[in-house]
Amino acid sequence: MGKNILVAHGGGPTAVINCSLQGVVEAARDSGKVDKIYAARFGAEGILAGDLIDLTDVSPSAIAKLSHTPASAIGSCRRKLTDADYPTVLETLRKFEIDCFFYNGGNDSMDTCHKVNELAKKEGLDLRVIGIPKTMDNDLEITDHCPGFGSAARYAALSAAELALDASGLPIHVVVLELMGRNAGWVTAASAMAARLTDCEVLTYLPEVPVDEDKMLADIETRYAKGRGLLVTVSEGICGLDGKPLADTGIVDGFGHKIPGGTAQHVTDQIIQKLGLKSRAEKPGLLGRASIPYVSLPDREEAYAVGKFALESALNGESGCMVAIAAERTPQYSSSLFLTPLADVANVEKKFPLEWIVDGNGIAGTFFDYAVPLMGGDFPEYALLRK
Amino acid sequence: MGKNILVAHGGGPTAVINCSLQGVVEAARDSGKVDKIYAARFGAEGILAGDLIDLTDVSPSAIAKLSHTPASAIGSCRRKLTDADYPTVLETLRKFEIDCFFYNGGNDSMDTCHKVNELAKKEGLDLRVIGIPKTMDNDLEITDHCPGFGSAARYAALSAAELALDASGLPIHVVVLELMGRNAGWVTAASAMAARLTDCEVLTYLPEVPVDEDKMLADIETRYAKGRGLLVTVSEGICGLDGKPLADTGIVDGFGHKIPGGTAQHVTDQIIQKLGLKSRAEKPGLLGRASIPYVSLPDREEAYAVGKFALESALNGESGCMVAIAAERTPQYSSSLFLTPLADVANVEKKFPLEWIVDGNGIAGTFFDYAVPLMGGDFPEYALLRK
Description:
The structure is a homodimer.
Chain A: E1 3-9, H1 17-31, E2 34-40, H2 44-49, E3 52-54, H3 60-64, H4 86-95, E4 100-105, H5 107-122, E5 128-133, H6 149-169, E6 174-179, H7 186-190, H8 193-197, E7 201-205, H9 213-224, E8 230-235, E9 248-252, E10 258-260, H10 263-275, E11 279-282, H11 287-290, H12 297-315, E12 321-328, E13 334-341, H13 342-345, E14 357-358, E15 362-363, H14 365-371
Parallel strand pairs in A: 1-2, 1-4, 4-5, 5-12, 6-8, 6-11, 7-8
Antiparallel strand pairs in A: 2-3, 9-10, 12-13, 14-15
Helix pairs in contact in A: 1-12, 4-5
């Protein structure tokens, strides 16, 4: 008799989270060792409610569409499980006779995953628990990078380049671009690619370095004066010298995190009022994690691979681990997968290296050595005839 | 002896404006009748300053890159020419011995184009003047649609669908998407495609219909309660019952138009404060006219074709006209080009038909019959396993 498996999504989606689901489902089918394939409808909410989607007989063509479906195709949630919830989780796992449980998420979700595994062991449940990494923020430890980051970074890089060309081709205002990333500046750093891809001046601010607003405005004034157009890219979570966010929406998420936002508009208002320059703020927001046309192909492939590897690892008897990625960048990019204990990644946040931030408003070449292969590498060459 | 030609860009760019430039340049080279190919550096500013870019010997491979270069590759400006400027324009045309002048822009630019043509005739200058249509706003009269609109509409439709999936896959907030379009709702209307492509509820508000904010909030509350996630799409320029914009940036552009903005954030604030729902505003802004990965292929082809047709028309002795597009939609989409007098399109704004707006918050199927072929038609099918 084959195994029954359950896949769940936790937290915010990425542009390739469904590719990991596709990897699990197709590997399960290929293995010949899986009976029932379940997905939790809306993540932890579905698990707690015993509301599972039976994917066992879903057509291969519908599963194939997952590769270009944004957001979570099975639904996700931001509910943080409490100690009181875990017995209910185990109840659902028992009811549906689940043998292998895959939780696809970030460091919050890996904590959930770890607790489910510990409780299952304690209660003598014969359960394999494997975490599948996912976060556009790239803030999981141990793994070289996270599936979802490469696509979010490609979105940031190309969008910033496109805005930079707009700003330098019609140089009437300072364009300020706000990008996602509460505490980790990985995605915003990718936007600094715009300076390499265009003729525009670019200033980039990450949440890792407190921003001196007076210096920021002085730098904006100086760079704008060069007359090549100016793009300023900011992480939604940047803070002032007092350690407080420059702006926030006043909303708190399910994990108790305050949701930043309005940072670009705040900077734009300062530029207009204090420098007397025209300025406009752009905030693609969730599009940075949902856009399919900007997906990085290596990211898509790796997202699929971690799902497949998770399934195979569980069938091999592994448990209590997260799939992680090891990468080689020379002479050319290649990656491989391995397992790391959930305890080592749960609730740990990988910060952007401070030494990769130059003068508080630029990004070092070492970051691009790291990130360009993850973004797909194949950046367009633009025609800049106005030079 | 061959002709000398000059191309200039006016106003805001589109994602395919450079394709029209490519069409002019490649047709000029193919004709064997053109000596010098000039472009105005930063539009009217370059013409007034006598600052032209000589494209005559630019390599074919550099010209080919125009097809995927956003913004204006030669530079544009928002300067509105005054009566005092026109003699200077003619001076530059004389100095560079220009035989054919092509101005690529919207209805403001067609007015400029018309005045140059009239003055040249009056002064006995042997000059051919042809307008090349361009505007993401789709608000030029006579022509079935404008190059640039199809790509902006595709951006709006796909981005809205991606956000809608994000909103219905993790239904914790009402997502409000702001799209460009000051007075004409063509692009925002395209975002209503999201309801056809996803399982999400979608409400769409155009600038053509004054918005009753109380009714808007009541509709948002009702639709959100269905539990399928809610996306609200708004044009940056929507006005309240008092006829005033719900929000504006306080900035005035070079043509004297007040720049709207912050509309989505305003609606989001109302949703949070008055309905007690979580909400977030997204504003991709200029990305809606600059994004290359979302370009509509028929739009790219037509943008090239209008440039080529403009060149050929001028060489055939035509002047004082704009290239316009005629389209057939049944049994399948096809388009052809014709010339229309500049006087008929200068400063005229084509409005979105009121009868295509349903209940003030939805878009009629007739709009999609009109617009889907322009957006490229090939919309993705998403995997929605959570249904």
